[in-house]
Amino acid sequence: DFKNARNISAQSQAMDRSSYTAPSDTGATSLQNRVSNGKSFFLNSGQWVDSAAQSLPSETPIRQIRFASEDYFNILQNSPSACQWFALGNNLRLTLDNKEIIEIIN
């Protein structure tokens, strides 16, 4: 909807539809999602999770990388497309190659 919006009002409506708050009587919490550079991310307990990483087998290796560390900047240098994904925040779980999961932690 956002991509096809032709004016500010349509963009605002598309942004409103991009997040959903479940009715309070269900006990569910607010669900949010974002699409960034071709990847879909879901906010889960304060962590942005790449949908591709979610669908990987449970035995997929997980590499934790501290936010703003040397490894963090090495990934950005070697994978420039990751800049848009890393911009989601410093608590992030994603895959770049579908062979490992990268967790950006504080």
How would you explain this protein's 3D organization?
The protein has 106 residues and is of the alpha/beta class. The chain has 4 helices and 7 strands, in the order H-E-E-E-E-H-E-H-H-E-E.
Produce the secondary structure layout.
Layout: H1 8-17, E1 19-20, E2 31-36, E3 39-44, E4 47-50, H2 51-54, E5 62-66, H3 70-78, H4 82-86, E6 92-94, E7 101-105
Parallel strand pairs: 4-6, 5-7
Antiparallel strand pairs: 1-2, 2-3, 3-4, 6-7
Produce a short descriptive summary.
By secondary structure, this protein is an alpha/beta fold.
Key words describing this protein structure:
7-stranded mixed beta sheet; single chain; 106 residues; 26% helix; alpha/beta; globular; 29% strand
Contiguous low-pLDDT stretches (5 residues minimum) are: 22-29
Order of helices and strands: HEEEEHEHHEE
Fraction in helix: 25-40%
Trace the largest sheet across and list its strands: 1-2-3-4-6-7-5
Major sheet description: 7 strands, mixed
* Inertia-based shape: globular
- Estimated structural class: alpha/beta
Mean pLDDT: 84
What is the rounded Rg?
Answer: 16 Å
Distance between the termini: 34 Å
Number of helices: 4
The strand count comes to: 7
Residue fraction in strands:
25-35%
